[in-house]
Amino acid sequence: xxxxxxxxxxxxxxxxxxxxxxxxxxxxxxxxxxxxxxxxxxxxxxxxxxxxxxxxxxxxxxxxxxxxxxxxxxxxxxxxxxxxxxxxxxxxxxxxxxxxxxxxxxxxxxxxxxxxxxxxxxxxxxxxxxxxxxxxxxxxxxxxxxxxxxxxxxxxxxxxxxxxxxxxxxxxxxxxxxxxxxxxxxxxxxxxxxxxxxxxxxxxxxxxxxxxxxxxxxxxxxxxxxxxxxxxxxxxxxxxxxxxxxxxxxxxxxxxxxxxxxxxxxxxxxxxxxxxxxxxxxxxxxxxxxxxxxxxxxxxxxxxxxxxxxxxxxxxxxxxxxxxxxxxxxxxxxxxxxxxxxxxx
Amino acid sequence: xxxxxxxxxxxxxxxxxxxxxxxxxxxxxxxxxxxxxxxxxxxxxxxxxxxxxxxxxxxxxxxxxxxxxxxxxxxxxxxxxxxxxxxxxxxxxxxxxxxxxxxxxxxxxxxxxxxxxxxxxxxxxxxxxxxxxxxxxxxxxxxxxxxxxxxxxxxxxxxxxxxxxxxxxxxxxxxxxxxxxxxxxxxxxxxxxxxxxxxxxxxxxxxxxxxxxxxxxxxxxxxxxxxxxxxxxxxxxxxxxxxxxxxxxxxxxxxxxxxxxxxxxxxxxxxxxxxxxxxxxxxxxxxxxxxxxxxxxxxxxxxxxxxxxxxxxxxxxxxxxxxxxxxxxxxxxxxxxxxxxxxxxxxxxxxxxxxxxxxxxxxxxxxxxxxxxxxxxxxxxxxxxxxxxxxxxxxxxxxxxxxxxxxxxxxxxxxxxxxxxxxxxxxxxxxxxxxxxxxxxxxxxxxxxxxxxxxxxxxxxxxxxxxxxxxxxxxxxxxxxxxxxxxxxxxxxxxxxxxxxxxxxxxxxxxxxxxxxxxxxxxxxxxxxxxxxxxxxxxxxxxxxxxxxxxxxxxxxxxxxxxxxxxxxxxxxxxxxxxxxxxxxxxxxxxxxxxxxxxxxxxxxxxxxxxxxxxxxxxxxxxxxxxxxxxxxxxxxxxxxxxxxxxxxxxxxxxxxxxxxxxxxxxxxxxxxxxxxxxxxxxxxxxxxxxxxxxxxxxxxxxxxxxxxxxxxxxxxxxxxxxxxxxxxxxxxxxxxxxxxxxxxxxxxxxxxxxxxxxxxxxxxxxxxxxxxxxxxxxxxxxxxxxxxxxxxxx
Lengths: 345, 795
Known about the structure:
The complex is a heterodimer.
Chain A: H1 2-18, H2 22-33, H3 38-44, H4 53-90, H5 109-123, E1 127-128, E2 134-136, H6 137-140, E3 165-167, H7 172-182, E4 188-197, E5 209-219, H8 224-239, E6 245-252, E7 255-264, E8 281-290, H9 292-297, E9 306-313, H10 314-322, H11 329-332, H12 335-338
Parallel strand pairs in A: 1-4
Antiparallel strand pairs in A: 2-3, 4-5, 5-9, 6-7, 7-8, 8-9
Chain B: E1 2-4, H1 5-11, H2 19-28, E2 32-38, E3 45-55, E4 63-68, E5 73-78, E6 88-92, E7 97-98, E8 101-102, E9 106-108, E10 111-113, E11 116-117, H3 132-136, H4 152-155, E12 161-166, H5 177-188, E13 209-212, E14 219-227, H6 235-243, H7 251-263, E15 268-271, E16 279-283, E17 288-291, E18 297-300, E19 306-309, E20 312-316, E21 320-321, E22 334-340, H8 343-352, H9 358-365, H10 371-387, E23 390-392, E24 396-399, E25 406-411, H11 412-419, H12 425-434, E26 440-442, E27 445-450, H13 460-471, H14 492-506, E28 510-511, E29 517-518, H15 520-525, E30 534-535, E31 546-547, H16 552-563, E32 570-580, E33 583-593, E34 595-599, E35 604-607, H17 610-623, E36 631-635, E37 643-653, E38 656-664, H18 666-671, E39 678-683, H19 684-689, E40 706-715, H20 720-730, E41 735-744, E42 753-762, H21 771-789, E43 792-793
Parallel strand pairs in B: 13-16, 28-32
Antiparallel strand pairs in B: 1-12, 2-12, 3-4, 3-6, 4-5, 6-11, 7-8, 9-10, 14-22, 14-23, 14-24, 15-22, 16-19, 17-18, 19-20, 20-21, 25-27, 26-27, 29-31, 30-31, 32-33, 33-39, 34-35, 36-37, 37-38, 38-39, 40-42, 40-43, 41-42
């Protein structure tokens, strides 16, 4: 009997070696260890043995049974691993095919630039004010200290709608409205971005429509040095920490003193290059101390308070920062152009 | 403004200050020098004389010249046709640097040549001021030119440098050389000496009539001079005029222009023999045609100022004189006019007549109030010196310049307070003295008296500018305002706008900005009309004539622009104000074309169609706090001209129409060179104004949900939303969601019917739903659908 057990074991092991799949293994398991299999048959045959023989035989059969069970379990693991490996191999994809880079829309570069400027000034406690583009002569010129027949009206050719109304030529119109709205209540600390219009023929550097962002601070003891510090802060944030600011005397009817503001060239760091035409400086904006007449017209006592104002051309800064060579790109809106401006810097 | 360096040098000592340094200093003081132009340039030049001139053996046009330059005789090969023996010439010696060439010793066709004989053109003189002969040949120097003179440019008066100075409107005074000299003197901090005038020993009593009948000419000076001699101007005068772009004509005409350059006051000289009435009278309110001295007829209107003499017109005041009375070679006696004319009147006339002259430019920019007196004095002086003026009558003066000297107080603390500087009293006073503001100090108070040529200085703030302008902006510190705290923040509208931009960007739409000014056609093609169109009084073109009242037409242009550049997918939005008479509205425009998202090889794409557009608009509204329950999308009854009637809808927020969305009308599409695009225009003010829903926590369900799929057959033209509404209404207590997952038309469904497959999600917040619970409600739903919509459950 013992030999028979041993033969059975040898035979089962031999067959186990030929098993290649989970299915074959299952079949083999049923064949040997199933209810109708030879192991079970041997166990059934134990009743024909003498009482003395039974324990040893039973033990021997059980040993073989558990031995085979263990071997089959080991075989199952191996087969499963093999099959998994095969499956993974078969499921391999071509990772070089393009991914689904979903289209993200961008802010228009002028919005991007404007927002960058807005956020700098919001951080310094400025509010963002707006106003109508179809504006009264009163707010665009009169209140900005540019009365009828003032020579400065020659400086900005205006789109008039009728004798009273026009398309605003500068966002100073928002300032004069805000000064009036403040009704003498100070401080005023605001920026006013917006579209402005001048009777210019469109070319690479001129546009009849463009974007300005002016700033206005009115309080006690505001100085020209404060203006310089504020603009220097802006320049550093927008064009880089090493930026410097230079004032040159100029003239605007609504400021006194008035200055042209140059920023050190961000391309060459002030050494001189094509962008700054070799000067190391780029003329970027106009600014000055608010003219006392402008304050007085808004009911603010110019002997007690002072203010500064500045105006930035948003296109100008964007063109400098991104190296755009034609202002018309901003308004023809070629989507390939627009897609370039895909992040804040 | 053209500033002659040599001329200014006559009034202010500029030794050690090169034109370049002066340009820098002026720029830093507010007079931006835009260009530096050397009239002529050249080193190693000398005056020589051709002592022998023979033909070159190997050339039909070259000459072999022996040129005596004093120290030696040079052999020079010269190609100029006018080279000849005995001619005094400009010689560029070996090593000379000319604007376009460096002279080297060499051989020309085998003949030795040690230098070059020059034309003025070769020295860089502009062809504009040269004669044909000067351009084509070498310069012929006068016989008395001294051989060996090495300072050739100075000898020829060509050593000048012209600075092109950009003037700000407040500093028109700088156009007068006398005032410019004062400014330069202040800038370089050196004294200024202006020329003194000579006077007639005795003036005769006046015999002419001078008057003005218009307030546009408040001051009129006239002077009769009975004898002048017309001849050539002295060289220095014609050179200076030339430097300033004015042609030299004769001594008398040149003096009128020269004085204008000196004082800023335009003068007019009339030939007195041609003025029979011996009268000059400024008048307006005239209406006739007049030929000015350029030979062109000008239509005079009532607002123009004219100068009358008796019944004849003698000139367009302040702009141009007449042909009849101009100075010519035969002129023997003259009448001088020095008057003040209204800048506004001159500007309007000059513009209307399209006639800008040296005179009109000066009147428009503003002239020193006392300039007519100064100019008259200078003119007389120069006429005596250079035109043998005799028989000089007294000046006749009509009207007044109403000039009052400006003087006021300013304090040192005010100046430092406005500027943020710490200048001492001494520093400030030094600057004010440089400017001739005659400061007197009393404690902190400085009293200033402003010279008449500086009408721009009227208030203490102007003094602060003058001080820092001359001390230099370099010294200004950078500080930040010390002031009460303010809250920097965006308004609700601005914050909402950013939400829209962020949402649409995230969905793949590009923001565009298009022009505000549009054509009549664009106005006609607009949607949701706002009111009467805002039209420009004088537009630049038909294209840019009106202020737009709708965004879509300009955006369709943008799509067309991109399509014509082979862009198949153009998905854009714009946020902008639109206008009508007395109305403004902020709007959002969206146009979709092609696909919004696409991964072609994977066959995954989001088409730019109606449902994509609808979803985008709904998403934007949701992000602004208006979910589906507050937004209603209904049949388009508003605009079936721009939109395709069957593929568009109106969007309502509550009961208010806030926009239209849908496919473009095929006719409009064709007009903009497009096929099918989907577009929306939304009124944002209405949305900003409405109360947004609050973000609120809702507890998550505790009990599981159950999903049941149903399919119904309904009439083909029935809106699926009807079915969904009935399901939600009837199953209100436990229907959480209805999802449409298929719409089918075709085989097994009648031709006028469609099958709609829906997935209904059932859930109860109190307990787990049993089959019986769900079946009870679902039976009611099916019954209601059958009754109300004739919807038949598909088995």
